[in-house]
Every structure is written in C-alpha cells, then in structure tokens.
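In this section we turn from sequence analysis to structure. A common task in structural bioinformatics is to predict how a protein folds when a small molecule is present, because the ligand can shape the pocket around it. The inputs are simple: the amino acid sequence and a SMILES string for the ligand, here S-adenosylmethionine. Study the lines below before reading on.
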Amino acid sequence: MMRRLLSRLARAKDSLTTRSLGLEDRFHTAIIRHTNNFGSTTWLGRPIWQNVFDLWVIQETIAEIKPDLLVETGTNRGGSSLFYAHLFDLMGHGQIITVDVQKLHDLSHPRVTYLIGDSAGEAVLGTVRRRAAEVTGPVMVILDSDHSEAHVRRELEAYAPLVTPGSFLMVQDGVIDVLPMLAADCPGPLPAINDFLLQHPEYELDVERCRRFLITHHPKGWLRRKPGS
Ligand SMILES: C[S@@+](CC[C@H](N)C(=O)[O-])C[C@H]1O[C@@H](n2cnc3c(N)ncnc32)[C@H](O)[C@@H]1O
C-alpha cells in the first residue's frame, strides 16, 4: 500500500504534465535539437549515440570501479562498446559483453563479446550470467537498449543481481520521461527506476553522479549497489 503510494508520488513528480521546464531542461532541449540528439557523435570515427557529458561520467566511473566485466545492452553501431574497450586497453584490464537484437556494425575488439538477441531473453541472460560468474572482480551494467518502461523493468530485474556490491547498474535515457520533445516514447525508464528503487533496498541512487554536469540523458540513471549488500 505504502509502496504503491510512494510509486505514484514519484511518478507524479517526474510527470511531464506536473513539471515546468527549468533553465537546465530548456538548455538540454536546445542541445538535443542542435546535435540531432547526439545522432552524429563519433568516437575515433565510429558512431556513438551518447550525450558527451554522460560519456565523461561513465569514463570517470569505469576508472573508479575498474570492472572485470562491463555488460552493455544496446550495441547499435558499436561506438560505445569500442569506447569502453579503449578505456579498458588504457587501464590494461576488463572485458565487455554488449547485446543487441540486430547487428549494425562490422567491429571487432579482443575485449568485446558481441551477442545478438533480446537483452531480457533467457538465451542472452544465460550467457551473461555464466560470464559474470567467471570473474572475481567488479561487474558493472549499462542498460541502453529498448527504453520502454516495460523492457527496462525486465532488464532491471534480470541484471541487478549480476552487479557486484559497490558497483553500478546504470539505466540510460530517463530523459524520455522528462523533456516534452521526447514524450512520444513515454513511458520510458523513470517509472521503472522509481519502482525498482522502492523494491530493492540493496540499491541506492547516486545523485551526485546523476547531477555531475547538470545536463544529462540519464536522470536517476546511476544506481549503486550498496557495499556489503
Ligand atoms: C540507443 S541504441 C544503443 C546506442 C549505443 N549504446 C551507443 O551508445 O552507441 C539502442 C539499441 O538497442 C537495440 N535494442 C532494442 N531492443 C532491444 C532488445 N530487446 N534487446 C537488445 N537490444 C535491443 C536497438 O537495436 C538499438 O541498436
């Protein structure tokens, strides 16, 4: 009962109809328009579909956590997994599994395993669980596939147990539920994140990481698994 009420309150707070756009949201809207939502951003010439502020926070987090394994759902044209692989090359450590329902690139990298399939399907999850069980160090997860509320709910439940205490389950693109210009894709990740946090006390929101550069595609996106949980 109390959880349902808290969930409704969080939903109302995030709702596009109850919020007025502040300066940050208006600036963010202008950046998205100007960059075609970062649609032509590249990493060493390869398309990477990321807000560059957020990419920097991911870089800082990877350097801090030093994951043995980073799991990314949503490979797309491969630029983000290549970016993470190059960071791992510089650190001399780490492997990546990236998942997509379709192959949209011709990339290969010794640190990256490319899986094709539904990120919330048993075939993919079986492989990812086996790989996560093989490593002894931190496991970090970035969810960047289908951003619908329903799919994000499935991914959160499936991938949360794989994240090691102290590491992160990062949920991308909650901005869908914030900016009116993206409302066609609502409901997106935010209601799924709100409910997940209510139901999983082993996770907490890292507000500082979410607010690092103010302009972010991932409001409430940085979920830390509490150390010792
Ligand atoms: C936003 S793009 C990923 C962008 C990429 N991470 C980057 O930064 O360049 C989302 C991708 O998720 C894939 N996708 C959609 N539904 C999926 C699902 N159920 N399982 C796995 N991938 C999915 C799409 O094919 C698309 O390539």
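DSSP finds eight helices and nine strands in the chain. As an exercise, try to locate the residues that line the S-adenosylmethionine site and compare them with your own expectations.
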